[in-house]
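This entry is passed on directly below:
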Amino acid sequence: MLQDPLTLYKLIVLYMLNRVTFPLTTAQISDFILEKDYTNFLTLQQVISELTDAGMVSSQSIRNRTHLAITEEGRETLSYFENRVNDAIKADINTYLRENEFTLRNEVSVLGDYYKSTSGEYEAHLIAKDRNINLVDITLSVPVEEVAATICDNWQKKNQDIYKYLIQELF
């Protein structure tokens, strides 16, 4: 039986999100789907938008990344239609997630964003998570936006060293 390709792509995205215990970014999902030539970028963006609008996927923008997670409604929908995703595609997804789990998890577990506070300063908000538990949650106030942006960029690169330093100094 032939099915609407958009439906299949939606099920692939839901299946991916359901197989992990952390959010995935749109870039991570895109990397997999585009690498396998399942569809093109514009169609995938439409699929993600429709899943979000339907409440099957939650979306959170953090700086230049959009983090996606499956909702309870998405899980329920997937449970009814998961059999429409063929076993070869499921195997590809499972292999991709297994081989890249550490990298995927690390990319969404370290968050750095900044904003202008009511005092006129910029606040860099830095978080390192593990299984949805905040290991570190720091807010630094700085006078200039460029400094806040640099702090967030450096947090992405040096968070493990900073965490290790804090543990050593505080324990």
Summary: The mean pLDDT is 91. The radius of gyration is 19 Å.
